[in-house]
Amino acid sequence: MRAVVLVGPRRLELREVADAEIAGETEVLLKIGCVGICGSDIHYYTQGRIGSQIVQYPFVLGHELSATVVKAGGAVRHVRPGDRVTVDPAIPCGGCDQCRIRRAHTCRNLRFLGCPGQAAGCLSEYLVMPAACCFPVKPQTTLEEAAFVEPLSIGLYATRLSVPMTGARVAVLGCGPIGLSVVLHAKLQGAAAVYVTDKIDGRLAAARQAGASWAGNPMKQDIVRAITEKEPLLLDAVFECCGQQEALDQAVALLKPGGKLVLVGIPTVERVSFAIDPLRRKEIVVQNVRRQNECVQAALELLESGRLRVDQFITHRFSLEQTAQAFELVAAYRDGVIKAMIHVS
C-alpha cells in the first residue's frame, strides 16, 4: 500500500510500505477516506517535535480521519465491512490507573496516531485500528465531515472543562479549526457572548458565521481595549487556541476575578509565562486541555443532528499525491486556509 512519509524537516514522500493487516480479534482494517491536516501535524512537519515528542525519520503523520471498514476481527460486533466510520486516534491501554478512572486520554500507555514514539499516522491507504476507536456514521454524513469530528470533539471537551456556558461571556483567541469548534460549542451551550480573535481575516469571517458576537484582528487593533470597552466587568472564560505568548497575556488581562483560562493551543516553545500579579490577584484558574475525553460520540451526534455544521470550515482539498503541497499551504497559512483535507480514496 502507499503512505505519505515524513523523511526530514518539510520533506514528505509518497512511498510503498508494508500492507496493513489485522492481528487481533478486536481490530478492524480500514480503507482511509479523508485525512484532515492538524496544527500538531504541522509542528512535526516543520520542527520535527512537540516538546519531548521528537520525530524519528521516516515517520507517517496524520490523526484526523474517516474511513470505510474493509475487514473486522471475529470479536467485533458494532461495525462490519462496508460501514463508514469516524475514528478516535487515541488508543488507550484500558488497564492503567488513568483508564480505570475514565481518563483514557491521559492513559499511562497511550498510543496516538501520528505521535512520535507511539503510533504511525493515517496518511496511508489502509490502517488497522481497535474497533473500539471506530464510530459508525450515518449515510448522509460525508467522509469530510466525519474526519472533522476529531477537532470538533476537542472543542466540545474544552467547553465542558470551562465555566458553565449558559449566560457566560467568553473569548476564543485563535480561530483555526479547533478554535472554531470551541465557538460552535460555546454558542450551542448557551454562551451569551463569544469574542474571537485571529490574524487571518478569513478565519474571523468564519467565526462570525459560526456565531461569534465580535471578531478582531490583533495585528490591526488593541484586542484587550476593544473587548474591555464592550465588557467592562471582563470575561468568565478565555480559550487560548493558538499557542502564542501574546494571546496568553491578552487572556489574563481579559478575565474577570475568578475567571478561567483554558489552554487548548499547542505552543512551539518549551516554556510560556504569566504575569503573576494579575493572575494571583484575580485568582485566575488555569485549565489545560489534553485532546478530548469521551466526546467523539457526542460530537458526532451533534453534527449528524444538524445542530452543528462544519463543512464551511473545509476550505481546501487535495489528493494523497498532493499531500506535500497541502502541508506547505497550511504551514504558511496561505490562501485563507482553515481546514485542508486529503482525499485518500
CATH homologous superfamily assignment of the largest domain: Medium-chain alcohol dehydrogenases, catalytic domain
Summarize model confidence as the mean pLDDT.
97
Which series of helices and strands comes N to C? EEEHEEEEEHEEEHEHEHEHEHEHEHEHE
CATH domain topology of the largest domain? Quinone Oxidoreductase, Chain A, domain 1
Radius of gyration: 20 Å
CATH architecture of the largest domain: Alpha-Beta Complex
Annotation field: number of helices: 10
Distance between the termini: 12 Å
Query: What is the β-strand count?
Result: 19
Explain what you see.
There is one protein chain. The protein is an alpha/beta fold and 345 residues long. It folds into 2 domains: 2-136 and 310-343, Quinone Oxidoreductase, Chain A, domain 1, CATH 3.90.180; 153-288, 3-Layer(aba) Sandwich (Rossmann fold). It is 28% helix and 28% strand. The chain is built from 10 helices and 19 strands. It has helices at 39-47, 97-100, 143-161, 177-188, 201-210, 223-230, 245-254, 276-281, 296-304, 323-331, and strands at residues 2-8, 11-16, 27-36, 49-50, 53-54, 64-72, 84-87, 90-91, 111-112, 126-130, 134-136, 169-173, 193-197, 214-216, 235-240, 255-263, 285-288, 314-319, 339-343. Strands 3, 6, 7, 10, 11, 18 and 19 form a 7-stranded mixed β-sheet that branches. Strands 14-13-12-15-16-17 form a 6-stranded parallel β-sheet, with helices on both faces. Strands 1-2 form a two-stranded antiparallel sheet. Helix 3 (143-161) packs across helix 4 (177-188) and helix 3 crosses helix 9. It is globular and about 60 Å long. The two termini are 12 Å apart.
